[in-house]
Design goal:
Number of helices: 5
Shape: elongated
Radius of gyration: 14 Å
CATH class: Mainly Alpha
CATH topology: 434 Repressor (Amino-terminal Domain)
CATH superfamily: lambda repressor-like DNA-binding domains
Distance between the termini: 8 Å
CATH architecture: Orthogonal Bundle
Number of strands: 0
């Protein structure tokens, strides 16, 4: 079975791709920089927080999960 995307890593990569700083991201999330670094290490995340992050970075992180589901269906895999 294909592993779920490591969401913290994906968020960090997108932040870097946009050339945004951790400080900028922390301000947008209304949290401390240390919490952002903890977020980068997380493999799973609450959907409400993921929605906020998706809006802040203007990136569809839910699409990463949908791609996995669609790929799984295309291969005819069961859960």
């Amino acid at each position: 079975m294909q592993e779920a995307p490591h969401i913290g890593k994906l968020i960090k990569e997108e932040l870097e791709r946009q050339e945004r700083t951790v400080s900028w991201f922390a301000r947008k999330l209304y949290c401390d920089r240390s919490n952002v670094y903890k977020l980068f290490k997380r493999s799973t995340i609450d959907t409400e927080l993921l929605l906020r992050i998706s809006l802040i970075l203007n990136h569809d992180f839910f699409g990463e999960y949908m791609a996995r589901i669609n790929n799984k269906e295309a291969k005819g895999e069961d859960s």
